[in-house]
Amino acid sequence: MLDVKFIRENLELVEKSAKEKGYKIDIRKVLELDDKRKAELVEVEELRRKRNEIAAKMKGGKPAPELIAEGKQVKDELAEKEQALSSVETGVKDLLKQIPNVIFEDVPLGGEENSVEVKKWGENHETGVDHLDYAVSRDWVDFERGAKVAGAKFYYLKGELALLENALLQYGLSKVLEHGFTYMTVPDMVSSRVLEGCGFNPRSSEQSDEYFIEGEDLAMIATAEMPLTGYHMDEIIDEDDLPLLYAGYSACFRKEAGTYGKYTRGLFRVHQFNKLEMYVFCLPEQSKEMHEKILAIEEEIWQGLGIPYHVINVAAGDLGAPAAKKYDMEYWSPVNQKYQEITSCSNCTDFQARAVNCRVRRKDGTIQFVHTLNGTAIPLARALVVMLENYATQDGKLKVPEVLRPYLNNKEEI
Known about the structure:
Layout: H1 4-9, H2 11-21, H3 27-57, H4 65-96, E1 116-121, H5 131-137, E2 141-142, H6 143-150, E3 156-157, H7 159-178, E4 182-185, E5 189-190, H8 192-197, E6 219-220, H9 225-229, E7 236-238, E8 244-253, E9 272-282, H10 287-304, E10 309-313, E11 325-333, E12 338-347, H11 351-356, E13 359-361, E14 367-369, E15 371-379, H12 380-391
Parallel strand pairs: 4-8, 7-13
Antiparallel strand pairs: 1-10, 2-3, 5-6, 8-9, 9-15, 10-11, 11-12, 12-15, 13-14
């Protein structure tokens, strides 16, 4: 979330960013409510001062009845005012959760169609194999039985396709470890505080993408970014320990609400998949450099796999609440003859850290909020789509990219 003081000092900027991101929020209402909070806080502090003053007078002997009566009156009035203050403070926090992060100056304005290509790599293939038809023909995936036991868009991976998924994970893991990331497995559920701290508040209830656990303050994670954001919640990290680089592996659960009209065939968009996610806690002055580093690692991974792609600077209207800037990497689909998203990486500045209270102690003793960044290393279900589209051969085999062969008993094809 944003700091109220920052909003007050940069009101026009915050209003413009929210509008460009597509959020319809009366931001001035937050400031009005915060003014009310300040006024009520003054009253509460004055009553606390009186309470303490009366308590001091009561020491050392039997207090006068008038003093006892005054003490009771102050006590009752203070309880009422504290309750009112708590209600206003909750209201301020609830409104702050609805305000998105401020975008960087180099973020394109407009909707998804206004995103700007900033890089391009590889030679686009003109022909490819439909991944679902191919995988079904090899008996590598079973959506029918997945639907029987869990519902539509759940599936079983079988045999060599399941082994290929593992090979992709091992390859991606080897690359992030080379770059100094610490490998972590993470909880597949998080509390509402962590969920909200990540900034994944839906713009409407219909767009909520999370599966919630009935009767529990828990939701299934949509990405390892969620539990990694909460890893240092309510902690102060020493400056010398930053940046902290984590690679989280997890199952991911998504309702995929609001995806009508998007490409959803087969494994491309499902309700459960596995993913290796990069996450960074760093100093504020490091975050732009770390954003470029995460992107470079993503490019290195997909260049190693030999997959043509381009990188886009995502337009404001497609950014979501937490990100100040985001890059999407889109691979060239020879089947659909267009670019489709494969990874993304975001600089969330101090937006998430403020919400989960993760701070850094600078060398001069001052305390400030860290910056957080995230980026996808390997989204495994979607990566399988890419492999099948690009490496299936006419004789019904699948060519194995050289970088994956060490994890598949050095097989050149499967």
